């Protein structure tokens, strides 16, 4: 009996060993490969997926290898039981146009990457009116400035206009389209007939450009030299104007941007801040040579944004801001400021991951260094950060009141709950940035979003923040485009801070004298 039991056990073990020996190893089959979408623009993300199935008799691990044109770019492992299947997904980004062969294992398919065409604009597509730059009054051109952080290929200019039905003799009239660099040097010019625009009804017109490459600040100029009535270009008032102006053409064809807005103040478009010429640029953004390609990294947009704000204090920056004025020619527009009587602490009101927080700290360090160099004993105090945010509606309303001369809105109650003598609000809204000199115990500085031009351009955000901090110290504007405190009513705007590396623009000798009067070597806090 006992021998029979042991024989049964022995036979069972032998059977199990035999079954194990007959068990087939894991074997994998790629069932499908999908690239979605199969055609994209440069910089867009593609999803590459393949279904992997274990057709063997044992559990095993499969290594999926993503290749582009035969070159391995990423791998992923998946462990599958016999008969099981799973989808493996990769995310891929290509920054250079072309056709690529994308594969996983022995399956492959084509991916087409085209140039990304973008449209630069400041209008919302709805014209409030159509305005003529009237040549008998000494001006005849519409000009708009644009800024591109990377090299940009202009392919078309798009604008909207109309020919007045009461105008006479327009059939033979022409207008000039020009692309100008940061110094108003002509990069491209072409002449078109007025009759591209219809009579009595407005229409958008696209003007072909032979692939003009620009980077940084550039201008689009439409010189109509129109009689009145004549050719009228669309004007939009959906956003505050920081980029549109009018021109005159001097002898020899030289273009000059007018310092003063020429329209009568009784007209709605007599307020320059309300008039955006509806002139757009269509083209393709070129990818920097060192831009990474391949698999999209987690949070890559955030990483790129933070990298772009890295400080690179260099003395050989190329800054196309023009030539400095002699000291005797600089005009100053001073504040009526008496200076701080205590060491002002600074609170930065911003989202936790806002990369501009570091720029604020560097701007404060810049001003403390300037004060030390002139012999002042005054310094900005402690710097703190809060995620409490000042409402965008207040920041926008205050900006509008500053530009239009109206009564400022009441300060929101949340400001009184914030610590700090200077509150720097880093907003995501669109408005003209501003600084409020302390009249009620706190100074508020409002910085608009940096996701759009010109605050997404190298060197602009740090200098704009430092410029507004200069107002908090008590400095006003000047008219020297090469200096930090250049501003209204002079024709200086944030795009003028563009440089190909990061650096602060200087202040003038007279501004140093002003600071030393406000904050002498003997300055001490009295509260």
Entry keywords:
527 residues; alpha+beta; Immunoglobulin-like; Jelly Rolls; Collagenase (Catalytic Domain); 3 domains; 11-stranded antiparallel beta sheet; 5-stranded mixed beta sheet; 7 helices; 17% helix; flat
Q: Give a short account of the largest sheet.
A: 11 strands, antiparallel
Tell me the distance between the termini: 106 Å
Q: How many E-type strands?
A: 27
Which range best describes the helical content: under 10%, 10-25%, 25-40%, 40-55%, 55-70% or over 70%? 10-25%
Class of secondary structure makeup: alpha+beta
* Poorly predicted ranges: 288-315
CATH homologous superfamily annotation of the largest domain = Collagenase (Catalytic Domain)
- Coarse morphology: flat
The residue-averaged pLDDT reads 83
CATH architecture of the largest domain: 3-Layer(aba) Sandwich
Q: Any idea what the radius of gyration is?
A: 32 Å
CATH topology of the largest domain, by name, is Collagenase (Catalytic Domain)
């Amino acid at each position: 009996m006992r021998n029979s039991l042991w024989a049964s056990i022995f036979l069972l073990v032998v059977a199990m060993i035999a079954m194990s020996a007959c068990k087939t190893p894991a074997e994998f089959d790629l069932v499908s490969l999908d690239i979605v979408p199969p055609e994209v623009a440069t910089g867009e993300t593609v999803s590459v997926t393949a279904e992997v199935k274990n057709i063997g008799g044992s559990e095993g691990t499969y290594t999926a290898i993503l290749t582009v044109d035969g070159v391995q770019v990423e791998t992923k492992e998946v462990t599958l039981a016999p008969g099981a299947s799973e989808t493996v997904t990769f995310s891929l980004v290509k920054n250079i146009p072309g056709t690529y062969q994308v594969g996983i294992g022995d399956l492959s398919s084509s991916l087409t990457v085209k140039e990304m065409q973008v449209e630069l604009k400041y209008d919302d597509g709805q014209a409030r009116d159509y305005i003529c730059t009237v040549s008998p009054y000494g001006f005849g051109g519409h000009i708009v400035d644009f800024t591109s952080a990377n090299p940009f290929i202009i392919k078309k200019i798009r604008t909207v206009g109309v020919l007045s039905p009461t105008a006479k003799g327009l059939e033979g009239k022409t207008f000039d389209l020009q692309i100008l660099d940061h110094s108003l040097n002509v990069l491209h010019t072409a002449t078109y007939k007025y009759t591209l625009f219809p009579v009595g009804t407005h229409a958008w017109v696209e003007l072909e450009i032979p692939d003009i490459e620009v980077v940084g600040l550039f201008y689009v100029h439409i010189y109509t030299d129109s009689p009145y009535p004549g050719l009228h270009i669309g004007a939009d008032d959906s956003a505050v104007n920081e980029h549109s102006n009018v021109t005159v053409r001097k002898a020899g064809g030289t273009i000059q941007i007018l310092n003063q807005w020429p329209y009568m103040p009784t007209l709605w478009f007599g307020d320059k801040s309300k008039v955006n010429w509806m002139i757009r640029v269509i083209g393709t953004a070129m990818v920097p040579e060192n831009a990474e390609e391949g698999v999209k990294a987690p949070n890559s947009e955030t990483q790129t944004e933070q990298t772009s704000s890295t400080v690179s204090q260099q003395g050989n920056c190329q800054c196309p801001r023009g030539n400095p004025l002699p000291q005797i020619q600089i005009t100053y527009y001073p504040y009526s400021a008496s200076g701080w009587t205590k060491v002002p602490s600074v609170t930065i009101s911003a989202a936790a991951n806002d990369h501009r927080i570091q720029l604020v700290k560097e701007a404060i360090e810049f001003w403390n260094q300037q004060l030390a160099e002139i012999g002042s004993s005054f310094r900005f105090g402690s710097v703190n950060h809060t995620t409490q945010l000042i409402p965008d509606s207040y920041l926008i309303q205050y900006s509008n009141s500053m530009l239009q001369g109206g009564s400022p809105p009441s300060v929101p109650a949340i400001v009184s709950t914030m610590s700090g003598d200077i509150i720097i609000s880093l907003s995501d809204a669109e408005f003209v940035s501003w600084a409020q000199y302390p009249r009620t115990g706190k100074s508020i500085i409002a910085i608009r979003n940096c996701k759009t031009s010109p605050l997404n351009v190298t060197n602009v955000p740090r200098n704009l923040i430092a410029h507004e901090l200069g107002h908090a110290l008590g400095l006003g504007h000047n008219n020297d485009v090469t200096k930090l405190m250049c501003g209204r009513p002079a024709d200086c705007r944030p795009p003028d801070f563009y440089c190909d590396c990061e650096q602060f623009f200087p202040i003038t000798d007279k501004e140093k004298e002003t600071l030393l009067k406000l904050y002498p070597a003997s300055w001490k806090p009295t509260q």
